[in-house]
Amino acid sequence: MNDTVASILNEAIQDEYKARALYRKVIEKFGDVRPFSNIVEAEERHIQALLPLFEKYHVPIPADDWPTRIEPPASLLAACQQGVEAEIENMEMYERLLDQARQFPDVQAVLQELQRASRDNHLPAFQRCVERGGLPGRGGRNRPGRRWESG
């Protein structure tokens, strides 16, 4: 097991666990509202994308205790604002981890894709939610004129 890779993977998966827990708490409190209902599924895919790297580099997969550490925000607007902050922090974390992973192109490839999803999909969705004052979204996927993108 490489300590650098272990540190990178653990930080990445903990951040994804945290985001998933927050978005699940929002859904529990406010119902199946967008963008949370879409992005919580994406966070699960992000976790799944990291797991093969844990196996390849023989890094133990950490337990997810975030559901017991997260409280839902008071309002949907506050949740959207928290989503913006979380995705910005996520992108910054991935920028730092990408630098640390220079010797591991496979790790970099996964981290780059996760960072791209945060930057191009999640952050704009939460920013739109804030612009709407926290009102749930109408849904942007598969609308005419828009290309479907997984997040």
TrEMBL record:
Q: Where is this region: Disordered?
A: 130-151
The lineage's top-level taxon is Bacteria
Annotated protein name in UniProt: DUF2202 domain-containing protein
Q: What lineage, starting at the top, does this entry show?
A: Bacteria, Pseudomonadati, Pseudomonadota, Gammaproteobacteria, Methylococcales
